[in-house]
């Protein structure tokens, strides 16, 4: 027997897939959609006063499960550091619309095949998804774009696979750039 939460989860996944937004939607992200984005807000570290948008971004990052694998841990740490330096303010959304930097970044990631990477690995919600007036949706889209961008940068610089996953005998440790600094640079780029 299919439970009501399972049906809601499946229906939400189908809706997000139809809108082009499911590529980065994790079960946790979909669960937020099922619950209307309601979640407990834990205290902000250091007693930092945050804007409403900053609180939403912080809550999304705080609710993310611990990532598996070195590359995903690096991506997660970079995204957290990136937003912490911004006081958790959205980077890619301005007045519920995508910034020029967001549009350029999405356009570039869609061309990942030119670099031998699968564009689907860096898919983000459609840009019209950003223009919805719901602050929760805007925060979710902002965080999803940051995660996709950090993953794209990491994969471009050192590949999609961590050689250590094949064993310690290889001794290979590819150099990755400072992903948080790269995100900050992209968000502040003039075009």
From TrEMBL:
Pfam families: Scaffold. Keywords: Signal. The keyword Oxidoreductase does not apply. Residues 78-191 form the L,D-transpeptidase scaffold domain. The keyword Signal applies. Transmembrane segments: none annotated. Residues 1-25 form the signal peptide. InterPro entries: LD_TPept_scaffold_dom. This is L,D-transpeptidase scaffold domain-containing protein. It comes from Propylenella binzhouense.
């Amino acid at each position: 027997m299919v439970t009501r939460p399972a049906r809601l989860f499946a229906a939400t996944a189908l809706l997000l897939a139809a809108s082009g937004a499911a590529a980065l939607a994790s079960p946790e992200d979909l669960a937020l959609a099922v619950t209307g984005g309601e979640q407990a807000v834990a205290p902000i570290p250091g007693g930092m006063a945050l804007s409403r948008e900053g609180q939403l971004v912080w809550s999304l990052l705080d609710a993310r499960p611990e990532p598996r694998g070195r590359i995903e841990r690096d991506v997660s740490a970079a995204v957290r550091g990136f937003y912490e330096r911004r006081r958790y303010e959205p980077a890619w959304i301005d007045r519920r619309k995508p910034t020029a930097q967001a549009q350029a970044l999405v356009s570039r990631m869609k061309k990942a095949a030119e670099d031998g990477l699968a564009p689907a690995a860096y898919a983000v919600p459609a840009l019209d998804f950003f223009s919805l007036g719901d602050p929760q949706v805007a925060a979710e889209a902002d965080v999803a774009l940051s995660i996709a961008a950090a993953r794209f940068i990491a994969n471009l610089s050192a590949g999609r696979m961590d050689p250590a996953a094949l064993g310690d005998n290889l001794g290979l440790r590819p150099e990755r750039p400072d992903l948080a600094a790269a995100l900050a640079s992209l968000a502040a780029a003039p075009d």
